[in-house]
């Protein structure tokens, strides 16, 4: 998966739910400690784990997390991800 997708998910979760929530989700998913680089490629399985771990941690369906991510992206068009 392109790093831009993972970076967008990272920014969304951190900005919406806080740094602590992001840290817990990232740790559970096995994400890199320093976060994601937008221009690198990552294993698709890692992206799926991030979504799954976020859904579990937030007690929301994965589809709702993805929909909220989309809303975040269109409502923050100038945000540097």
UniProtKB/TrEMBL annotation:
Pfam families reported in the protein's UniProt record: HNOB
GO molecular function, one term: heme binding
Superkingdom as given in the UniProt entry: Bacteria
Domain Heme NO-binding: start-end pairs: 2-76
Full protein name: Heme NO-binding domain-containing protein
Lineage of source species: Bacteria, Pseudomonadati, Pseudomonadota, Alphaproteobacteria, Rhodobacterales
């Amino acid at each position: 998966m392109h790093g831009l997708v993972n970076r967008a998910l990272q920014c969304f979760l951190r900005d919406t739910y806080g740094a602590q929530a992001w840290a817990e989700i990232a740790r559970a998913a096995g994400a890199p400690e320093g976060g994601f680089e937008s221009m690198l490629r990552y294993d698709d399985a890692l992206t799926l784990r991030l979504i799954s771990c976020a859904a579990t941690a937030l007690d929301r369906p994965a589809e709702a997390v993805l929909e909220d991510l989309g809303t975040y992206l269109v409502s923050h068009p100038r945000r540097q991800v």
